[in-house]
Input
Amino acid sequence: MIISNRRITGLTSDAIAELVAKIGPLWHERHQTKLASWPRKRAVGGGPKHRLVFVDRLLATLVHLRHAVTHDVLACWFGVDRSTITRAVNEVRPLLAERGCTVSTDVRLRTLAEVVEYLGSSGTTGIIDGTEIRVRRPAVGRKDRDKFISGKNKQNAVKSVVVTDGEGRVLWCSPARPASCADITHARQLGLAELLADAPALEILADAGYQGLGAQTGGRVVTPPHRKFKNAPDWYEEMYERQRTAHSRTSPL
Output
């Protein structure tokens, strides 16, 4: 099931088979060298066999790298001890890194100011949007209970502002706050308008919920056009929809 479902590992079955064929012998060779590197009372290969074969070790490592699944969960999934998964990941991950399959660690953005500085210095287009997560309804009598009701979904939720690059990679996520706060208000409270007003030339794409930030930031926040007429003629509606469609196509999200 893991091999056939690309959503789990991010790789096709053919790509996994290629990795097994090329990395498997390397892992076996290093494992045998390690076993023979210290004094032994029995021959190499004696004793109990591995409960986790190399293919499963590779799959566990791929799932861990793609979804950040904990070793405890993988241990339950594969029916082995947690230490076995930890050892497997530590053995297979360097072999994958030698083939270029590694996680980049060069960009660490911890604040919104660092995100703005990164976008400006790298010339990367950013994308900003708010995301909501449903939560339990606050207890009766709790102060500001109604603040958790989302004006968009009419549900109890918390909201965070997420900034990505032009390819959809997450750069920063704000602390969550009650979902009754509008997207543009949340962004202003985070100080985005002030940061962009003093920032070098850059571009951040946003949806209609951020209309108004463009004027505050000198055009650095790009939003869909405003609807200027309620009962507009057909030619205006067609132009308006074309502009909104062109804006949405520039974002991979």
User: Anything to note?
Assistant: The chain has ten helices and six strands. The longest helix spans residues 13-35.
